[in-house]
Design brief:
Structural class: alpha+beta
Largest sheet: 10 strands, antiparallel
Distance between the termini: 145 Å
Transmembrane segments: 21-45
CATH topology of the domain at 181-298: Glucose Permease (Domain IIA)
Order of helices and strands: EEHHEEEEEEEEEEEEH
Keywords: Membrane, Transmembrane, Transmembrane helix
Strand content: 15-25%
Helix content: 40-55%
CATH architecture of the domain at 181-298: Distorted Sandwich
Protein name: M23ase beta-sheet core domain-containing protein
Number of strands: 14
Organism: endosymbiont of Galathealinum brachiosum
Domain M23ase beta-sheet core: 198-293
Radius of gyration: 53 Å
Length: 300
């Protein structure tokens, strides 16, 4: 068998002569090996291309999953921030309600042990299975709405209590001294200087010189100086047409324009002016006219 090989380098054909069976067999083996090598190479190239395509697809999927994870994290963070803001609103409302509650307990003079707004109220009960999952957003909105409603109700109650307390604060009641006794009542009596009958327009309370003289109601000082017959006089305007006077003081402790509270010490007892000894001459004036102080003194 003759095999002619053509080469572009030499420019002329090359002739190979195969005559023996051994040579033919070697040539056949070479051809088979060469064909196998070409096939393997093609398979490897194909697999490489397929693997490269699979890797690219997997990378793309990983990228998408990463984007989804980041978006989920962002949404979760936004939800957490929103819940934190709502929780802050609830805490602020709760703090205002606690402060308002404590204030009302003080105003109404309630038992702090019974109405303690700093401690959590007692709650409990058996666990009930099978309930549906809670919508936290709706529940938070409902709690905030309820807290706002309760706060408004407590504000109204506070105004009512303050108004009531102010009425009690400025209404004359009680004795103008801590210790002592009544030395003269309102009405007709014998004048201690002339011995004649005379109408006494107040009540006299006697005690040791220098004893405290108290305001029987809150108000504004409209006189704090000497006045004929009264000696050192303190006069308080309580509003609603009520004025009280405290005469014969040793020393006045307040000035005109001062605001005083019920029970506040306004002067020290003395015997200035037209007086026979240490006492306070106490008058209650209603709409410009002296009235009997006894019913106010007896009121607690």
């Amino acid at each position: 068998m003759d095999i002619i090989l053509l080469s572009k380098f030499r420019g002329r054909p090359c002739r190979v002569q195969i005559g023996s069976p051994v040579q033919f067999m070697m040539l056949s083996v070479f051809a088979v090996l060469f064909s196998g090598a070409l096939g393997m190479m093609g398979y490897w190239v194909g697999q490489s291309q397929a693997s490269s395509s699979s890797v690219s697809s997997i990378q793309q999927e990983i990228k998408l999953q990463r984007q989804l994870i980041n978006q989920t994290r962002f949404n979760a963070r936004a939800d957490i921030d929103a819940l934190a803001a709502r929780l802050g609103e609830i805490q602020a409302h709760a703090m205002r309600l606690n402060a308002l509650g404590q204030k009302l307990v003080t105003i109404a003079k309630l038992d702090r042990g019974e109405f303690n707004f700093e401690d959590n109220p007692g709650l409990g009960g058996p666990d009930e299975p099978g309930l549906q999952e809670m919508d936290f957003g709706s529940e938070i909105d409902a709690v905030i709405s309820e807290l706002e409603d309760r706060e408004q109700q407590l504000r109204v109650l506070e105004n009512i209590l303050i108004s009531s307390n102010m009425q009690e604060e400025v209404f004359p009641a009680g004795r103008p001294i801590k210790r002592g006794w009544i030395s003269s009542y309102y009405g007709t009596r014998t004048n201690p200087f002339s011995g004649k009958l005379q109408f006494h327009k107040g009540m006299d309370f006697a005690a040791k010189s220098g004893s405290d003289v108290l305001a029987v109601a809150g108000g504004v000082i409209t006189w704090s100086s000497k006045r004929y017959g009264y000696g050192n006089l303190v006069e308080i305007n309580h509003g609603n047409g009520y004025i009280t006077r405290y005469g014969h003081n040793k020393t006045n402790l307040v000035s005109v324009g001062d605001t005083v509270k019920k029970g506040q010490v306004i002067s020290l007892m003395g015997s200035t002016g037209r007086s026979t000894g240490p006492h306070v001459h106490f008058e209650v004036i209603k709409n410009g006219r002296q009235i009997n102080p006894q019913k106010f003194v007896q009121r607690k």
